[in-house]
Amino acid sequence: MNTMKKYILIQSLVITSLCACQKQTPESDTTDVVQQQPDEEPSTPQDTQDPQDTLTTGAPDLTLVANPDRPEPLNKIKLPSGFEIDYYAKDLPAARSMALSPEGTLYVGTRRDSKVWALRDEDGDNKAEKRYMLTDKLSTPNGVAFKDGDLYVAEISRILKFTDIENNLDNPPEPEVIYNAYPTESHHGWKFIAFGPDDALYVPVGAPCNFCERDNPIYSSITRLPLDTLKPEVFAHGVRNTVGFDWHPETKELWFTDNGRDRLGDDIPPDELNKVTQKGQHFGFPYCHGGDIIDPELGEGHSCDDYIAPEQKLGPHVAALGMRFYTGDMFPKEYKNQIFIAEHGSWNRSTPIGYRVTLVQNNGEHASTYDVFAEGWKNDDGSRWGRPVDVLVMSDGALLISDDEHGAIYRVTHD
């Protein structure tokens, strides 16, 4: 056994000796074996560090309180004082990524379904009573983005466009395939997409594995797809699996969540919130995780100093997905330009974590604090009734949260 692996194994044994009674999962992963993922982030429980240690505390006041007067199960959700939560849409199975048109139409993709939805609040009661199923024939249409009257949808390997969709919700056209050459692997193949300040479509390509090396640089990346050339270029490298990103409203720099690798224990590595300051930066995967954890299988000969460290370490295996900068005016001023993150929740961690919405405060240059903003989708016994996926700021400043487990979209407001 080489020196690097011995050193890392010794470190791991010191940590894991703190607990000798955890659930085990089959150790059948190799660097080239792709296993079916039941959900975002399976992990092998090993160690006992309190994941709450990752969280920090700062202004605004994020003391969470429940409201027993809400109907079940919304009465389980805890929010800071002054905030409320209600349904924007119910009975919307597998609701995932969201995109909003200037006319107020909310587009919703799905992952384990084949549908794309359009929702409208026609009577102004802050509930989407009107819904249109635009298609039920796509393969993992997770990502949706809207631009100039057209809806863009991401499948595993294709980008499609519904032309002039706003004027054809009742009779949507067949989508046009505008690009069909992204990798076809389904493992981390579902996509979040969004248009950047440069009007290009940004499309991630996840690692087709838990951990592995691939010669093709398009894997483990965020790509930039200009609509005029439709020739993707790699914008960021070393990104294992991002399912959410946004641009800072002032600096216009791209920030993104990334899901850490599995089978290193309950509490390592952390999920990440990263920031791209220039095209071509490498964020570590598969050699370095969390900015300071060398991979025990593939890290030999690499240094974490050679890669971009996270702006904020997030909870381990929380499956951090959708993120948005808060640009509305409804919430207190302390929330302006701060980051909301939907944490989908761990898959098989010995003590479940996530199933919440967190808030990362930043000054435009660096993140400073990481706190829980909304929780309660996880029951006291560790089971869950909901799983937040994406967040989106409405024109009135309300915050929407999609939930693919409960089949709903929630609307968070402040009085």
Description:
With about 425 residues, this protein is mostly beta strands. The protein has a single domain, classed as TolB, C-terminal domain (Neuraminidase). It has one helix at about 5-15, and strands spanning about 65, 80, 85-90, 95-100, 105-110, 115-120, 130-135, 145, 150-155, 160, 175-180, 195, 200-205, 220-225, 235, 245, 255-260, 270-275, 280, 290, 295, 310-315, 320-325, 340-345, 355-360, 365-375, 390-395, 400-405, 410-415. The strands form eight sheets. A five-stranded mixed sheet has the order 12-13-14-15-19, with no helix packed on it. Strands 3-29-28-27 form a four-stranded antiparallel sheet, with no helix packed on it. The longest helix has 14 residues, at about 5-15. It is globular, with a radius of gyration of 21 Å. Mean pLDDT is about 90; it is low at about 1-55.
Describe the structure concisely:
This protein is 3% helix and 33% strand. It is mostly beta strands and 415 residues long.
- CA radius of gyration: 21 Å
Task: Give helix and strand order, one letter per element, not per position.
Answer: HEEEEEEEEEEEEEEEEEEEEEEEEEEEEE
- Number of helices, where a helix is a run of at least 4 consecutive DSSP H or I residues: 1
Q: What do we call the CATH homologous superfamily?
A: TolB, C-terminal domain
For the largest beta-sheet, the strand count, sense and barrel status come to: 5 strands, mixed
Task: Give the amount of beta strand, in percent.
Answer: 25-35%
Structural class: mainly beta
Oligomer: single chain
What's the total number of strands?
29
Count of spatially separate domains = 1
Looking at the overall shape, the CATH architecture is 6 Propeller
Measured as a percent range, the helix fraction is under 10%
Please name the CATH topology: Neuraminidase
Measured distance between first and last alpha carbons: 61 Å
Please mark out the parts with pLDDT under 50 across 5 or more consecutive residues, or reply none: 1-53
